[in-house]
Each structure stands twice: as structure tokens, then as C-alpha cells.
Amino acid sequence: MRRFAALFLLPLVVAVSLSGCTLPGFVSLPSDVVYPSIEPLSDAGPMAPMTLAWQFEGAEVRLSVPVDAAVYRGAKNAQKSALFFREIEEMEWIPEYYRAFVGEPHQEPLYESMLQGLRALRDSLGLGEDRYAELIVTLVQSLEYRTDPVYLEPKFPVETVGDANGDCDDKTLLAAALLAREGYDVAILLFSAEQHVSLGIRSDGSTYSRSGYAIVETTTPILFGWVPDSLNGDISLASEPMVIRIGEGTRSYGAGRQTDAIRDRFDEAVVEAEELGERASESQRDLERRAREVEEVRAQMDALAAAGDAAGYNKLVPRYNRLVEEYNAAVEEHNALVAQQNEAVATAARITEGQTDRYGLARFLGLGS
């Protein structure tokens, strides 16, 4: 997670004078706000193409991405803070600040190259719009989550790709850039109180608070619309985010109701597993009590037989048989409880492990495709 970038307030005009002379006129500065931009470094050495591999719908997919070294190095050296030359409200500069990272024009060839490869994967896998959005997001989620303890500002998406890592805002900016250029209605959800950034996508399912968008966490593989229980540092999202729309896309995510249903099944399975676990533990204790009772009666019968007391032995036989029958019935009930618990645990585990495979989870749970 990142804090806001450091910002510098400069005067509108600076007059510079030297001893014995004065510079002609004034040095004029911009009258507005200067946002981060990239100046490519022409002397940057070549970079090998990035090979990105990630899990999608139960299989590994790969994408080779050429990265322009001049743009990448220029982004690394770029000023990442917004420079103010006038009074400005947060609601005005913060959205434009984040949009500047996404829309920096020198990155367009990178976006187009990535999207050409992603479209080829989409076509080869036969993906519709929803699964294609998931393909893009799972790529970004798969990149290593890494924070920079020194530089707190966001990275340009070209840096995130070239580094193959980033933190919440870095990865969200990359995902938003790609999805917006494919026509999806997406936004950056900025949680100032938690110092966290998530992606938002227009969806037919649940939306986050009053944002109007389903939340998509980019720092870890997780289904669209699922709100993480906690983030790095045991932080939970609780505040109302600032919504920063990226692009003018109109496509929405049409599997939101399905991911909602998957979350409901997951929550139900977790609760069921816990309840059945408690009942199975009680059942186990009851079995152990019954087994001791059977053993005690059997010991009495063995003692009577050893003493030659056939009448006493025969008198205990009906009780012993009843206890054994009740014990065996209790074993069957216990085994049924354990089987139900195991099924609930398996369902929760399958959903947990299938966070990059919404399509497969839906079929597994009988929710359609």
C-alpha cells in the first residue's frame, strides 16, 4: 500500500537576479498543475521481452510482452509528484493525478502489444467478454506484490510490466489501463483512510458500498466483487472510496451475480464445516463413552464365564447386544457427520483454490456457465 505522492507548491512567477545584473524579464512558470509524464531516454540499453505466465481457469497461460527500454527508463526517472501552481481541491487533482499514469501516451505501444497477445489468448480459449475481463485481471493479479519502502508514489504501468511486480496502486493502474482500452467501464477505488487502491468494474452483481462498481482486488488472486477479509498489515476496508473513472468504456461484467452466489456458497460451506465439526467432536466423545460401556459389560461377562456363572453371563447378553447395536448405529451417524463435514470443507477448499477460475467454479457448484 502507498501513501499519496509528495506534492510541491510553487509560486506563480519567479524573478531571478544576479549580483551586478538582472536576467531579462521574468522566468514564467505554468499557471496550472503539472502531472507526471515520461521523457523517454534515447540512450537506454535494450530490454529482453517479458514473459508473463499465470494460472487461468486451471491451466497456465503465457504472454510475451516487448518493453520499450527508452520508455521504461524514462518512466523510472520521471517526476512522480504533481506540481501545483494554483490553489486546487483534492477532488480535482487526485483523479487527474492517477489518470496521468494510465494515460501517459508513450505507453500506448505497450498497451497495444499486450492487448494483441491477450486477444489472441481470448480467441484461442473461446472466451466471452466476462471471461476475457477475468483473463486480463488474473494476469495483473499474478504479478508479484511488492512495495517500495523508499519511493511511495505510484509506478507507471510500463514500470509494473517491466518489473513484473508492484503494489496495490501500481497493479490497479495497469489493470484499469488494459480494461478501459478494451471498452470496459472501470474505475480506480481510492481508499484514503486505509491507504489502499482497488479496481472497480461495472457489474450486474453486488457493488462496493456507494461506488457503483464491483470491487476487484488486484494484489492477490480473488474473484470479482469479493471484498478481502483483510489486506496486508491486517487492514480491512471500511471507508467510502473516491471513485476515479478511467476511460469511457461501456462494457460491464455480466457474471457478478454468479460471483456473488459463489461467495454465498463459500460462506455457507465454511459455517457448515464449523458446525458439523463441532457436532462430529461431540459425536466422537459419545462414541468413546459408548465404547467404554460396551467394554465394561464385556469385561463383566468374561469374569462371569471364567467363574462358571452361566446364568449371570446369559443375563448380561441382551444388554451387551443392545449396547453393541446402539454403538454401531452411533458409528454410522458419526461417519455420516464426518462425511458431510468433509464435503463442506472440500467445497470451501475448491472455491478457495479456484479464485482464477470463476467459470469452472460455477460449473462445479451447478450455477451454470
Distance between the termini: 35 Å
Strand order of the largest sheet: 14-13-12-15
| Alpha carbon gyration radius | 31 Å
Name the shape in a single word.
elongated
Look at the structure and give the mean pLDDT: 90
What structural class do the secondary elements suggest?
alpha+beta
The total of beta strands comes to 15
What percent of residues adopt helix (DSSP H or I)? 40-55%
Short summary of the structure?
This protein is α+β, with helices and mostly antiparallel strands and 369 residues long.
Walk me through the topology:
Elements: E1 8-9, E2 13-14, E3 17-18, E4 21-22, E5 27-28, E6 33-34, E7 50-56, E8 59-65, H1 69-77, E9 83-84, H2 90-103, H3 108-125, H4 129-142, E10 144-145, H5 157-163, E11 165-166, H6 168-181, E12 186-191, E13 196-201, E14 214-216, E15 242-246, H7 256-306, H8 310-353, H9 358-364
Parallel strand pairs: 1-9, 10-11
Antiparallel strand pairs: 2-5, 3-4, 6-9, 7-8, 12-13, 12-15, 13-14
Helix pairs in contact: 2-6, 4-6, 5-6, 7-8
Describe the fold and architecture.
It is a single chain. With 369 residues, this protein is an alpha+beta fold. It has 2 domains: 8-254, no CATH class; 259-364. It has helices at residues 69-77, 90-103, 108-125, 129-142, 157-163, 168-181, 256-306, 310-353, 358-364, and strands at residues 8-9, 13-14, 17-18, 21-22, 27-28, 33-34, 50-56, 59-65, 83-84, 144-145, 165-166, 186-191, 196-201, 214-216, 242-246. The strands form 6 sheets. It has a 4-stranded antiparallel sheet with strand order 14-13-12-15, with helices on one face. Strands 1-9-6 form a 3-stranded mixed sheet, with no helix packed on it. Strands 2-5 form a two-stranded antiparallel sheet. The longest helix has 51 residues, at 256-306.
